[in-house]
């Protein structure tokens, strides 16, 4: 007998969706998994005293159904890209990647992942109803608020189905953000103008230090080019920007690499934002991840959020914005402070 | 430390012998050695929960410890006679609550669900719903109670239930087969080895900065900020000792008074942040 180190050896399935075709499709990928019926996902997902650092070596999967409100208003510390009506939704909770700074680690006490067995058109319909309530004004919906959907796509096919229904919600713009470079997934999507593929790009040094289980920079940039070739609106997100020894050269070097690799004039827009985290979550993360430098950094607290001191935040964000503005129109660069 | 709970003395007999456990001087029926406390709780959820809570509380358990509840159970469905099972779901019949042990190991033992009730199981009058028909479902009178009590102290991957199928609910009187005790002993020893091998949650390493705090005339709040900054410095590979030496050489330290100390602390944090 040994301590398990493989993922998804146990899959917890809400009784309500046991016979749903999406459930069967996902379970087909795990013929040897133990399937455990549950009444509601919180019974497993929110167990007290779970240990992320142990669980991340042997994550389990929870399949559930989302009821009631499917869309929530976005937080003020997130980019809305000029949209007045900014919402987010969570077709899944938690992520298969392991970024040390991820806010989900402050919000949830588990490394397990929930996939909601809801069809993309349920989320789209909810967004369309919101738009209707604002006289058909455009609504922006982030679909990757509490997960990265790309690594889950081989199981769920959610993104492909979302790309198929998005043309039916003309007043809605959806954003799916990722650090997972998969040209195959991108090519499997149906091209549509209101589905923005957003790629988080970070210096390779930062990926190596803090973004465990994500794709290297070169692969992310190759995926950006695939998305551009396929005709999707593409967003590059320099968010969160993180300080680490040598960050000035690292960010400048990354921009140089991007400029040489990607046709920046074809990119729809860019977002820039330095690390910020709810003070409450930061406290939890500090006790959960005592070995992480990015978590233990002595941040300053402003209005309940931990962030870098102004002098560093401004150098980081504005300095990068100024460098980027040499290669693209400034109006396509979104800085969080300016949006607020 | 390993905490083992059984309902019956018979269930624990081989463990007590093998581990050379000695009766301890408490009101509970406990047997101990340097790394194990075995408690015979008596049957039923009230006895099990109260004994478990009392033992774990009085021993000041930490999240390095483990709890195992082992014993016999009736099979409601698909259980193999004398089969030993690792429990992956527990349903408490009284409260209708469900519990889920975490990180079930890859094991030679099959897995099962467990229903805990306050009365002995009778196949003839059971009205128990238990999920899909191919699942193995067992019944006992202690599992949920031990899990509930232990959950107040430990994470769910440090609590394990091991159940041996003794019967199928045909009769009120179970003749205890002495071989069961040996099967239970083997399972408990194997399982606890795996559980104890799982690393405990790492503790935060606070750099020793008592002397520096004194030089700064630091209050409790200032000391916390100092510790946080130095903790980051060590993780990020920043040589804070060199910075402090520079401050001492420049005559900034020791500070003359608390106000000056506060300013130097801010400067130190500033230097570390950059
Ligand atoms: S990819 Fe995004 S959601 Fe996933 S761990 Fe990293 S920051 Fe969190």
Q: What is the structure about, briefly put?
A:
By secondary structure, chain A is an alpha/beta fold.
Would you mind describing this structure in some detail?
The complex is a heterodimer of chains A (340) and B (274). Chain A is α/β, with parallel strands linked by helices. Chain A has a single domain, classed as pyruvate-formate lyase- activating enzyme (Alpha-Beta Horseshoe), CATH 3.80.30.30. In chain A, 36% of the residues lie in helices and 21% in strands. In chain A, the strands form four sheets. Chain A has an eight-stranded mixed beta sheet with strand order 4-5-9-10-11-13-14-18. A five-stranded mixed beta sheet of chain A has the order 2-1-3-8-6. The termini of chain A are far apart. The relative contact order of chain A is 0.11. The model of chain A has no long low-confidence stretch (mean pLDDT 94). Chain B is α/β, with parallel strands linked by helices. Helix content of chain B is 37%, strand content 21%. The A-B interface holds A 1-4, 9-10, 12, 15, 18, 34-39, 43-44, 47-51, 53-55, 58, 243-245, 286-288, 290-293, 296-298, 308-309, 312 and B 63, 88-89, 98, 100, 102-108, 111, 113, 131-132, 135, 151, 154-157, 190-191, 193-194, 197-199, 201-205, 225, 228-229, 231-232, 235-238, 269-270, 272-274. The complex binds iron/sulfur cluster. The site of iron/sulfur cluster has 10 residues of chain A, from strand 7.
Strand content of chain A: 15-25%
* Helix/sheet category of chain A: alpha/beta
What is the highest CATH level, the class of chain A? Alpha Beta
CATH fold node name of the largest domain in chain B? Rossmann fold
CATH architecture classification name of the largest domain in chain B:
3-Layer(aba) Sandwich
Unreliable stretches of chain A: none
CATH fold-level label of chain A: pyruvate-formate lyase- activating enzyme
Weakly predicted, low-confidence segments of chain B: none
């Amino acid at each position: 007998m040994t301590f398990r180190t493989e993922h998804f050896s146990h899959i917890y399935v809400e009784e309500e969706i046991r016979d749903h075709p999406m459930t069967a499709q996902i379970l087909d990928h795990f013929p040897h998994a133990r399937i455990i019926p549950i009444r509601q996902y919180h019974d497993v997902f929110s167990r007290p005293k779970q240990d992320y650092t142990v669980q991340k070596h042997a994550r389990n999967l929870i399949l559930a159904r989302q009821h009631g409100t499917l869309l929530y208003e976005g937080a003020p510390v997130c980019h809305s890209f000029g949209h007045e009506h900014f919402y987010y939704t969570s077709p899944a909770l938690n992520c298969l990647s392991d970024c040390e700074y991820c806010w989900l680690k402050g919000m949830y006490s588990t490394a397990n992942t929930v996939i909601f067995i809801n069809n993309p058109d349920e989320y789209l319909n909810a967004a369309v109803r919101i738009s209707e309530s604002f006289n058909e004004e455009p609504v922006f919906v982030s679909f990757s608020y509490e997960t990265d959907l790309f690594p889950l796509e081989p199981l769920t096919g959610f993104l492909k189905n979302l790309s198929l229904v998005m043309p039916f919600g003309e007043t809605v713009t959806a954003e799916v953000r990722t650090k997972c470079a998969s040209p195959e997934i991108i090519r499997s999507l149906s091209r549509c103008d209101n589905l923005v593929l957003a790629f988080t790009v970070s210096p390779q040094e930062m990926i190596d230090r803090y973004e465990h289980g994500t794709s290297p920079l070169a692969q992310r940039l190759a995926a950006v080019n695939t998305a551009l070739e396929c005709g999707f609106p593409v967003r590059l997100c320099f968010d969160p920007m993180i300080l680490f020894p040598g960050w000035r050269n690292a960010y400048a070097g990354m921009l140089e690499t991007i400029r040489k690799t990607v046709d920046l004039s074809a990119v729809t827009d860019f977002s820039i934002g330095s690390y910020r985290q709810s003070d409450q979550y930061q406290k939890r993360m500090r006790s959960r991840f005592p070995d992480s430098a990015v978590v233990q950094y002595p941040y300053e607290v402003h209005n309940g959020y931990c962030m870098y001191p102004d002098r560093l935040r401004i150098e980081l964000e504005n300095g990068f914005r100024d460098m980027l503005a040499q290669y693209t129109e400034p109006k396509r660069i979104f800085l969080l402070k300016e949006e607020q | 430390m390993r905490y083992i709970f059984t309902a019956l003395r018979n269930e624990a007999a081989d463990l007590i012998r093998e581990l050379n456990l000695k009766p301890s001087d408490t009101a509970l029926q406990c047997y101990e050695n340097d790394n194990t406390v075995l408690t015979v709780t008596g049957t039923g959820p009230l006895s099990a929960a109260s004994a478990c809570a009392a033992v774990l509380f009085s021993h000041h358990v930490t999240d390095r410890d483990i709890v195992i509840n082992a014993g016999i159970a009736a099979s409601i469905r698909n259980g193999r006679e004398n089969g030993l099972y690792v429990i992956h779901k527990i349903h408490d019949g009284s409260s209708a609550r469900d519990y889920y042990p975490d990180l079930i190991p890859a094991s030679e033992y099959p897995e099962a669900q467990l229903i805990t009730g306050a009365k002995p199981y009778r196949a003839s009058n059971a009205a128990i719903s238990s999920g899909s028909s191919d699942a193995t479902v067992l019944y006992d009178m202690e599992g949920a109670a031990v899990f509930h009590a232990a959950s107040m102290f430990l994470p769910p991957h440090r609590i394990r239930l091991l159940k041996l199928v003794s019967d199928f609910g045909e009769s009120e009187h179970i003749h205890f087969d002495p071989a069961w005790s040996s099967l239970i002993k083997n399972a408990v020893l194997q399982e606890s080895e795996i559980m104890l091998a799982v690393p405990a949650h790492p503790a935060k390493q606070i750099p020793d900065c008592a002397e520096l705090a004194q030089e700064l005339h630091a209050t409790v709040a200032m000391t916390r900020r100092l510790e946080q900054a130095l903790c980051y410095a060590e993780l990020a590979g920043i040589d804070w000792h060199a910075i402090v030496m520079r401050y001492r050489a420049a005559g900034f330290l020791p500070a003359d008074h608390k106000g000056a100390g506060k300013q130097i602390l801010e400067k130190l944090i500033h230097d570390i942040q950059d």
